[in-house]
Specification:
By secondary structure, this protein is of the alpha/beta class. The protein has a single domain, classed as 3-Layer(aba) Sandwich (Rossmann fold). Strands 5-6-7-3-8-9 form a six-stranded mixed sheet, with helices on both faces. It has a three-stranded antiparallel sheet with strand order 2-1-4, covered by helices on one side. The chain is globular. Bound molecules: adenosine-5'-triphosphate. Adenosine-5'-triphosphate binds next to strand 2 and helix 1. InterPro entries: AAA+_ATPase (IPR003593), ABC_transporter-like_ATP-bd (IPR003439), P-loop_NTPase (IPR027417).
Length: about 240
């Protein structure tokens, strides 16, 4: 479904990604985990056509995102919850999103219910939303087209414990119904609870990948994560 093949990215001399390769399959939540500045957002931006790889390729359904017919309907993305127009209501935001990908307006009401923003909240302007409400709206935007692939950059940022639980149940349900979910975070404990597989990145390089059990090998995942990221730091200093 999603495949990164030897992707490297350099920003004016800064090596943000270095030979990154991994795949994300259907029916599975894949956690993309790494410390701040590791390269997670850069990788997801390349995957969704918002940045260009210096070398290598990132594909969805075997093609570059921009080459897909109506990509917004097949690939749901949440890349920046701050990018919403503050003067539009939640309902207007989703209505525009639905129109862009050719969906009927009835889908907007369904999605507002799904993300817990129905009733009066749907008709308030986004500028007055809490960070958690904005995250829910962005998740709703990503789910409008009932996508087969979901790409979410730090989706639990700003969510309270109930919101985090809600997100976990939602993502689990989507993966169980066959969706491929790629979810980035620097929060190990959040990702550990929802991901079937993990891809660990540090300083732009893939440090390890596998199931939680494979990566922790009898230790806590936190110990493994800290050791791998410390080694990555040492190898570049
Ligand atoms: N547009 C850009 N111009 C220059 N450097 C960039 C740009 N975007 C990212 N970088 C650099 O690339 C590296 C990776 O950044 P990136 O945002 O992908 O990391 P991240 O893992 O998503 O971090 P975080 O968890 O803090 O969001 C960092 O060194 C960052 O400063």
């Amino acid at each position: 479904m999603i495949e990164f093949s030897h992707v490297s990215k350099t920003y004016r001399g800064v090596r943000a990604l270095d030979d990154v390769s991994f795949a994300v399959g259907p029916g599975c939540v894949t956690g993309f985990l790494g410390p701040n500045g590791a390269g997670k957002s850069t990788a997801l931006r390349i995957l969704t056509g918002l940045a260009r790889a210096t070398s290598g390729s990132a594909t969805v359904f075997g093609r570059a995102y921009a080459e897909l017919a109506n990509p917004g309907a097949r690939v749901g993305t949440l890349l920046d919850a701050g990018a919403l127009h503050p003067g539009r209501t939640g309902r207007e935001t989703l209505t525009l999103g639905a129109m862009m990908i050719g969906l009927p307006r009835t889908r907007v009401g369904e999605v507002l219910d799904l993300v817990g923003l129905s009733g009066r909240e749907a008709d308030r302007v986004v500028g007055g939303y809490s960070l958690g409400m904005r995250q829910r709206l962005c998740v709703g935007h990503a789910l409008l087209g009932r996508p087969e692939v979901l790409v979410l950059d730090e989706p639990v940022n700003g969510l309270d414990p109930q919101g985090i639980h809600w997100m976990r149940v939602l993502l689990r349900g989507l993966a169980d119904s066959g969706c491929s979910v790629l979810l980035s975070s620097h929060l190990l404990h959040e990702i550990e609870q929802v991901a079937d597989r993990l891809v660990l990145i540090g300083r732009g390089r893939i440090l390890a990948q596998g199931t939680v059990a494979e990566l922790s090998r009898g230790r806590s995942l936190e110990e493994t994560f800290l050791e791998l990221t410390a080694n990555a730091d040492r190898s570049v200093s």
